[in-house]
């Protein structure tokens, strides 16, 4: 069923102005009948009655009918007229993935299995990486978590990235799970990038075989790249 087209704003204002003019006209006409015209030329009681009825119509009935018509005409005429964004606003937002690439530094001396605490480790590392990014800091960080030694630094303009903390954590987890099968052996260098000038250089290894002096940065033969970060953690 097709509804009448919506009335433009100027049309409603014109109707309201007309109604007010008629009301003021009735007031003026009543005063003219009582104070200007002689009584023998006017049936004052009849005029007053009809003016009272007209005033009620203009003051209450007519505005209500106009408002009801505007409400009907402004309703969506079909499902296809509803705003398109109402259909897509609940779709999940996809983050730009973070890419992790591997370079092995030196021989494999020992391994550590991290399946039981991999999520905790990746979230911890991503929190520190994102904190340095938010500070536009090119400083390095290092530490130990559950027997895994790590160092990290970044390069690029301002040393910052728009990648979210969960995306960074998800990318590291996906790499360690899919490529290293939840194990870290020897000393590994991971290159993280997010499509811009930023690069994060993350060096990982078991405490017992971690090479503190091994270089982890540009120029190394990186391979085994994995793109991740969306719902990977």
UniProtKB/TrEMBL annotation:
Matches recorded under Pfam families: DUF6736
Taxonomic superkingdom: Eukaryota
InterPro entries named among the record's database cross-references: CSS2_C
Keyword entries, A-Z: Membrane, Transmembrane, Transmembrane helix
TM region positions: 17-35, 47-65, 97-119
Secreted protein CSS2 C-terminal domain span: 94-215
Protein known as: Secreted protein CSS2 C-terminal domain-containing protein
Originating species: Aspergillus hiratsukae
């Amino acid at each position: 069923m097709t509804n009448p087209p919506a009335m433009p704003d100027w049309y409603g204002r014109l109707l309201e102005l007309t109604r007010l003019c008629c009301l003021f006209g009735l007031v003026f006409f009543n005063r003219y009948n009582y104070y200007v015209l002689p009584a023998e030329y006017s049936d004052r009681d009849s005029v007053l009655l009809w003016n009272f009825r007209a005033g009620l119509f203009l003051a209450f009935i007519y505005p209500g009918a106009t408002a009801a018509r505007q409400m009907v005409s402004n309703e969506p005429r079909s499902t296809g007229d509803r705003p398109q964004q109402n259909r897509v606003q609940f779709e999940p937002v996809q983050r730009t993935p973070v890419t992790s690439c591997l370079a092995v530094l030196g021989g494999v001396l020992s391994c550590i299995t991290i399946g039981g605490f991999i999520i905790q480790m990746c979230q911890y590392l991503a929190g520190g990486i994102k904190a340095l990014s938010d500070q536009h800091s090119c400083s390095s960080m290092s530490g130990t978590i559950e027997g895994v030694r790590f160092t990290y630094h970044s390069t690029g303009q301002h040393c910052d990235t728009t990648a979210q903390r969960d995306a960074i954590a998800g990318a590291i987890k996906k790499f360690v799970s899919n490529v290293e099968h939840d194990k870290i052996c020897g000393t590994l260098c991971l290159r993280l990038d997010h499509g811009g000038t930023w690069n994060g250089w993350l060096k990982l290894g078991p405490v017992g075989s971690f090479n503190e002096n091994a270089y982890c940065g540009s120029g190394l033969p990186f391979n085994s790249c994995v793109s991740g970060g969306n719902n990977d953690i």
